[in-house]
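User: I want to check something. If I give you two sequences, will you return the structure for each one separately, not as a complex?

Assistant: Yes, each is folded on its own. Here is the first sequence with its structure:
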Amino acid sequence: MNKENKLSPSLPSGFEDRWGKKLVLKKQLLNVIEKNFIKFGAEPLETPSFEVSENIGSFLAEDDANPMSDVFSFKDGDKSITLRYDLSSPLARFVAQNNQELPSIYKRYAIQNVFRNEKPGNGRYREFLQADFDIIGNTNPAQSNAELCNLISTTLLECGLKKDQFIINVSNRKIVQGLIDELNISSEKQLKVIRAIDKLDKPGFGLSGVEALLKKERKDSSGAITKGADLNDDQVKQILDFLKIKDLKELKDKLTNPLSQEGIKELEDVFEILGFGKYKDQVQTNFTIVRGLAYYDGFIVETNLNFEVKNNKGKPVDIGSICSGGAYAKLISRFKGVDIPGTGISFGVDRLLFALMQLEQIKVKEQKPVLICVMDQKYLKNYYEILDQLKTNNINAEIFLDTKKNLGKQLTYANKRELELAIICGENEFNENTVTIKNLKGVKGENNQTISRENLINEIKKLI
């Protein structure tokens, strides 16, 4: 092949290979997350990567002229199909399709990849793993939503975080929706207003950035212009004043419209239920979170980390929420014609992984094998007997697969793989029924021990 025709071993932007310690830690996180989902009563669900485009809907894009711009869609005969961008829309389709077979309160969890055609960076990917827990059915909303908060706390603590390293922010979309209705903001502008508010804590925004998006337009540092909601000055002022309120009691006094009061009462009920458990202190109100997805209509939650996260260049970055979600009633009614309430959360596993890789407090359990070195091909059958003995006793092990390599090359292989132990058996060991264990992480000169063959398993288990 000519040099100019050689393929470039590269990935498209926003996609990532994961291997080594990073992948091992990811599997550890998934094990903890799934165990907690099951502990809280959920059943597993797996849906296809593709959904019919009209069924999955368009809840991401901010460009009204191109509502499917943030997803990957393809023609499939006379239909359009879309790679799922979250796990909630497929859940709504599944519940509508199988409602008669499901219990009146359906708890499901799903752990699958999702795909978004958006700008990557700082823990954001175009393909990433989400772990979702949802409760569908007519429940006491305070109980269901408090359960979500307790699940988030339990899971993150068991993943290895400390209590002061994350905070769960909660609010209710009814609060801001009541204000929007009171200000007579037209229906076609409402989603723009909600998405503008949702950007308050994003880098480069703040109150001034939100104000620009509530008005005619916002120009960012690159010169790009985002069309705003085009509200009048009084509407903008009242929304900005609302965003400055931090206390639930103050909010209750300021917003007197019935819908906002309903949302405030629902939040109070959640905190009452949280008081029955041990994680209430992990949860705080934050009325500036509204969740940009249009299908949320009540309780909403975002979980943020309280420690510094850096990008690959060592620069501190804001990676956003690592677990978020909320309540929805209209998502399933698109199919059924009746409202079936639901509420749920989604862990951004890859974003959480990106952050946790920077903490030394999380121990990665790699479970690497013991290497059985091949000193002489004539003893190959004996090496396989040792291999079988180790595996029978649940010890990960492998034989070096090239009988022509000398011991130095075999140990170089072990060191490159960061293995901890090697077993060395030559003619002397086999004649004396002994085995030499080399501790590859030990102090040079003190890292070899020769023991009787019958003590091999006990000594190995002491070292791994």
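And separately, the second sequence with its own structure:
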Amino acid sequence: MPLQILGLTPLFAVSPQLGEADFAEVAARGFTTVINNRPDGEGGPAQPASADLERAAVAAGLRYVYLPVVSGSITVAQASAMRDVLHASAGMTLAFCRSGARSAQLFGLAQAPD
């Protein structure tokens, strides 16, 4: 199944859940940072663990950030952490969660002034 990536800006995009095999394509598409916004175990045993995803992302040459947020319960601290990650990222960033919506919401909150 092809990756479903939705660009929100020229440097930021979101996607549904990624698997270990997806990171080579993510890197080939020019992304340099990947942010996992999905808490481990949220999707049950079928959901890949963050540690496994991190190994695959690093092997593909990507910077991997685990910033889990619960849908409907995003905090100011999490939005601030997202802002910090985005400011420290060089190049294109891809954030993912179950559907991509939570990552998009977190991105929007991270754009708000303190």
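Because they were folded independently, the notes below concern the second chain alone. The chain has four helices and five strands. The mean pLDDT is 95.
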